[in-house]
Structures are given as structure tokens and as C-alpha cells.
Amino acid sequence: MNNLLEKKAVDFCIKNKHRLTVPRLNVLKILTSSSKPMTAYQILKKLGELMDNPKPPTAYRAIEFWKKYNFVHRIESLNAYSVCSSNHLHSGGQFMICNDCGKVIETHLCSLPSAFKKILKEQMFTLSNWNLEISGVCKKCS
Predict the structure, then answer these.
(1) Residues 92-136, CATH architecture
(2) Other CB atoms within 10 Å distance of the CB of residue 7
(3) Which fold has domain 3-83?
(4) Is residue 38 packed enough to be buried (19+ CB in 10 Å), middle (13-18) or exposed (0-12)?
(5) Is the pLDDT of residue 110 over 80?
(6) What does the domain layout of the chain look like in residue ranges?
(7) Which residues on neighbouring strands pair with residue 94, listed in sequence order?
(8) Which of 10, 23, 84, 120 has a 20 to 30 A CA-CA distance from 17?
(9) How many angstroms separate the CA atoms of 100 and 88, rounded?
(10) Could you tell me where the DSSP H helices lie in the chain?
(11) What are 6-56's pLDDT values in tens digits?
(12) What whole-number distance in Å separates Cα of residue 43 and Cα of residue 63?
């Protein structure tokens, strides 16, 4: 596991009085060791290699915990999860997804672009969350 991320996760749990359960830590390790986003069932399968017969709710609860605190992002178009590559808190995620190899590159645009802000204001729409997913072909595959 990425030692920096593990330390950050442990520190976060201690500071905020959250339990760092074995399933939570294992899910973070699984996602950190993966080069591509993973579906919940792929995570569950890997979790089964580390724990005795985990059930789907165990995996989902751990995923949702890390997602809630921005350690993990959900890639909506892939119905998969990826560990956050950022060292800071941010409110939205932006991902470039390669159509050929499946690689996902996270970018760090920390605030909503002004064009979107304008549209939200015009439509009197209150934003609760935002993700931007762009599909194309990565440098390696082009």
C-alpha cells in the first residue's frame, strides 16, 4: 500500500475518531494496489483473498466510508472506484478515461469552471456534487 496514503488514512481516522476497521483498511489497500478502477464486486473478490468470506455489504460499507471522505472516487461511467491521487481536499473529481486500455487519470481542477457556475446560477440550480469524466485515448495507446 502507498505508505503516504496509509498514514493519511490512519491519521484521518484517529483525528476524527473513526474506526479504522480491517475491511476499511483492506479496501483501501486493494484500490491503492490496482492500476485501474475496480468495481465493487472486483473489490469484494480481492477482499476474499484477505478475509474469510466477506459479504457484499462489508465491501460496500468500506467503499462508501472512503468515498464519503474523498479518499476514493466513484467513476460513474465505469461503475467503478479509484483511490484519490490528490494530496488535498476537493469538492469534485475530474477524470480522463482511456477507451483503449481503461487507464484513468485524475486531474485536479479544484473549483467548478466559471462556465458551469454561470449555468447553475442562471438555472437557479444548487450544486451538491460534481464530477467530470472525459473519455478518449491516452498517450500510450495513441
Answers:
(1) 2-Layer Sandwich (3.30)
(2) 11
(3) Arc Repressor Mutant, subunit A (1.10.10)
(4) buried
(5) no
(6) 3-83, 92-136
(7) 107, 132
(8) 84
(9) 30
(10) 3-15, 22-33, 40-50, 56-68, 114-122
(11) 888 889 999 999 999 999 999 999 999 998 999 999 999 999 999 999 999
(12) 9
- Rounded to whole angstroms, the Cα distance separating 32 from 26 reads 10
127: left (phi over 0), alpha (psi -120 to 50) or beta: beta
* Residue 124 DSSP code: T
| 114 CB neighbour count, 10 Å cutoff | 8
> In which residue are the cell numbers 468495481 written?
39
Distance CA 62, CA 69 (A): 11
State the burial class of residue 47 (Cβ atoms within 10 Å of its Cβ: 0-12, 13-18, 19+): buried
The pLDDT tens digits of the residues spanning 66-83 come to 999 989 999 999 999 998
Sequence letter at residue 14 = I
Please say whether the beta carbons of 51 and 23 come within 8 A: yes
Could you write out the three-class secondary structure of 86-117? CCCCCCEEEEEEECCCCCEEEECCCCCCHHHH
